[in-house]
Specification:
Layout (H helix, E strand, L loop, with lengths): L1 H18 L4 E2 L1 H10 L3 E7 L4 H10 L3 H10 E7 L6 E3 L2 E3 L17 H5 L7 E5 L5 E6 L4 H12 L9 H10 L7
Parallel strand pairs: 1-3, 2-3
Antiparallel strand pairs: 2-6, 4-5, 6-7
Helix pairs in contact: 4-6
């Protein structure tokens, strides 16, 4: 009986822990999942040496509201913008031909896919539609409250209604945050 109780507790605790993390995957896995069940893609383009990237992980991507929202509305991709992952996107293969596997710290070569996504600073979060179409990059560290507007404007397709700077300003003014810090 004690073993059964312990096993039940372990299963419950494991599911609680897993429910408290973003379900990160590779870009290739997200694109494959999209073919089976269309969903937008959210990419966190980071580097191993980037301080604000680590702050995003610690402060923003650990927030329960952010986790729940991203897991529900997006396929979440964790992409090392200076890594050596091979990405197959839109009938093209993206690599990092100048990647130095001997380099353990500091900057490495920029990945071709990072360049294709318009990543020019770290961190950059990139949004794709349900068909893998590029929407936009969002650069810099964002708190959960500041990330919320971007997560929601793309998930709800409100971005299709916001065409001008004035409309974006109005959208921001009328937007009501619901994420807690």
């Amino acid at each position: 009986m004690k073993k059964l109780l312990l096993l039940t507790f372990i299963i419950f605790a494991t599911s609680v822990i897993q429910a408290q993390e973003i379900n990160w995957m590779s870009m290739n896995d997200a694109l494959a999942a999209q073919k089976k069940q269309p969903k937008k893609i959210f990419v966190d383009a980071y580097t191993t040496w980037c301080g604000p990237c680590k702050m995003l992980d610690r402060n923003t991507f650990s927030n329960k509201d952010v986790i729940q929202y991203i897991n529900k509305h997006y396929y979440a991709v964790k992409f090392n913008a200076e890594g050596d992952e091979v990405v197959n996107f839109k009938d093209k293969v993206f690599k990092n031909p100048n990647f130095d596997p001997e380099k353990k710290t500091g900057r490495n070569a920029v990945h071709e896919f990072a360049i294709a996504m318009g990543v020019s600073a770290y961190p950059t979060m990139v949004f794709f539609d349900e068909k893998g179409g590029f929407l936009t990059p969002v650069k810099g560290y964002l708190t959960p409250e500041k990330l919320e507007i971007f997560l929601k404007i793309f998930a709800t397709d409100d971005y299709k209604k916001v065409k001008t700077d004035e409309e974006w300003k109005k959208y921001q003014e009328e937007f009501e945050n619901t994420f807690s810090s």
